[in-house]
């Protein structure tokens, strides 16, 4: 049914539905939709909570971010295990979108703060699957020498979702009320569901193709695409019934080896440092703009556009550089370049703040593609470790970083800026000291 079969049983649109570009588009759209739906209420939540009569708005907003992160931590291990155990990406992704739609509706209709938290946890579980399984799908389809570039392309969805969410949410909230942003989110999730329904996984597409060279083969067991260099990526064997044999993948030994790999911990720490900045910005910036400049949700949303638009390009650029030169120095450069902009944010000047936030976001977003490439390297170097396993570590590391200090300290904004500087400096030091250039072996 899902394959829209034509005569002879061959899926309609096999080539484009299983192509690297389409699969990257699907993953990018999923990440973008998830991020947009996550960020739709960012410019709305503090104002809505104030309207409901709640106090400690930054703290309550921060707890909603923590609830989302908790959902990611709950859903990520399960998503990785199911995806690698049964060697399927499509079904978990479809289930995640359905759960995401349910979480949107629950959040929209929640009559109190407690149910807002529950809905945010459910959205975090959905997001865990969308990210972990989606990124693993790209790795299944892409040769090792293109991983950084394709990851950077997929991350355009992250930037666009971050750009579009706050202004759309703020404008719809101001014009039509609290429900309007969530109607938009449900519509976008339905579009994402359709594109995922059409996607054909590489392992399924190869059943209909005579020559492996006709399809992307980033995860073939014994053959690779002609332009792919580096280690061969193993695929578990299948028995006569077609069920995947996962003795090695399901065993504990490969997972322990993954946890002992240096790049696993470097990548996990860097995503933790990156995650410490992003969530705290989302929890703090709307209130900072409200407290200092008196801006409402609509203007806050528009300011987010100026901040996040540059990040649409940094992921692709850093991904290509990582493919060519290795991840270490690209990550160091991006972390280091973000440091001065965090320091300048201490000065309370709106034009300067917007410029600083834009450059800070540009360089921090550029850190993600090299980190993703490091995790890819771990997966291809350790036999029995699947892509979903390593990107589960990636996802959980990002989710842990949800600090909230703005309204708990007398000089909250100063503390936030210093905290951001500390995070980026630590990213530079850890990458310089503990990383190496072994990832270039996959380039």
TrEMBL record:
Specify one Pfam family: MFS_1
Question: What is the recorded name of this protein?
Answer: MFS general substrate transporter
Q: Where is the signal peptide?
A: none
A single GO CC term, please?
membrane
Looking at the record, the residues that make up the Major facilitator superfamily (MFS) profile domain are 20-439
Using the record for this protein, list the coiled-coil segments as residue ranges, or answer none.
none
CDD domains in the record = MFS_MdtG_SLC18_like
Q: Which GO terms describe its molecular function?
A: transmembrane transporter activity
Q: Which UniProt keywords apply?
A: Membrane, Transmembrane, Transmembrane helix, Transport
Q: Which residues cross the membrane?
A: 20-43, 63-82, 94-115, 121-142, 154-174, 180-199, 263-281, 293-317, 329-346, 384-401, 413-434
Q: Where in the cell is it found?
A: Membrane
Chain intervals for the UniProt region annotation (Disordered): 216-246
Show the Gene3D superfamilies listed in the entry: MFS general substrate transporter like domains
The record ties this protein, via InterPro entries, to: MFS, MFS_dom, MFS_trans_sf, MFS_Vesicular_Transporter
Species this chain originates from: Dacryopinax primogenitus (strain DJM 731) (Brown rot fungus)
């Amino acid at each position: 049914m899902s394959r829209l079969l034509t005569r002879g049983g061959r899926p309609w649109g096999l080539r484009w539905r299983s192509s690297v570009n389409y699969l990257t588009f699907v993953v990018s759209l999923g990440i973008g939709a998830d991020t947009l739906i996550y960020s739709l209420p960012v410019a709305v939540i503090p104002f809505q909570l104030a309207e409901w009569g709640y106090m400690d708005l930054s703290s309550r907003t921060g707890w909603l971010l923590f609830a989302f992160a908790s959902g990611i931590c709950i859903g990520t291990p399960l998503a990785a295990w199911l995806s690698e155990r049964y060697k399927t990406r499509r079904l978990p992704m479809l289930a995640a979108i359905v759960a995401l739609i349910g979480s949107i509706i629950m959040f929209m209709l929640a009559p109190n703060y407690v149910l807002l938290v529950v809905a945010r946890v459910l959205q975090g579980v959905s997001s865990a699957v969308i990210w972990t399984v989606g990124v693993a799908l790209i790795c299944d389809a892409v040769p090792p020498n293109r991983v950084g570039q394709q990851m950077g392309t997929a991350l355009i969805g992250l930037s666009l979702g971050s750009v579009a969410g706050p202004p759309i949410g703020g404008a719809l909230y101001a014009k039509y009320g609290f429900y309007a942003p969530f109607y938009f989110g449900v519509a976008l999730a339905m579009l994402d569901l359709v594109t995922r329904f059409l996607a054909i996984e590489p392992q399924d597409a190869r059943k209909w193709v005579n020559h492996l060279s006709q399809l992307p083969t980033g995860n073939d067991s014994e053959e690779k695409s002609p332009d792919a260099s580096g280690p061969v990526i193993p695929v578990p064997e299948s028995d006569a019934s077609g069920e995947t044999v996962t003795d090695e993948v399901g065993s504990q030994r490969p997972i322990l080896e993954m946890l002992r790999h240096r790049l696993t911990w470097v990548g996990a720490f860097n995503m933790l440092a990156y995650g410490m900045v992003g969530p705290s910005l989302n929890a703090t910036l709307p209130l900072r703009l409200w407290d200092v400049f008196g801006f409402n949700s609509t203007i806050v949303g528009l300011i987010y556009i100026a901040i996040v638009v540059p990040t649409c390009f940094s992921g692709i650029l850093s991904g290509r550089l990582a493919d060519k030169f290795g991840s270490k120095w690209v990550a160091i450069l991006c972390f280091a370049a973000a440091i001065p902009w965090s320091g300048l944010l201490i000065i309370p000047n709106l034009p300067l703040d917007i410029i600083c936030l834009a450059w800070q976001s540009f360089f921090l977003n550029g850190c993600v593609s090299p980190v993703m490439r490091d995790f890819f390297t771990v997966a291809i170097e350790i036999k029995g470790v699947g892509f979903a396993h390593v990107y589960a570590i990636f996802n959980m590391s990002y989710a842990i970083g949800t600090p909230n200090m703005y309204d708990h300290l007398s000089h909250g904004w100063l503390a936030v800026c210093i905290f951001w500087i500390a995070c980026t400096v630590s990213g530079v030091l850890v990458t310089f000291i503990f990383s190496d250039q072994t990832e270039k072996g996959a380039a």
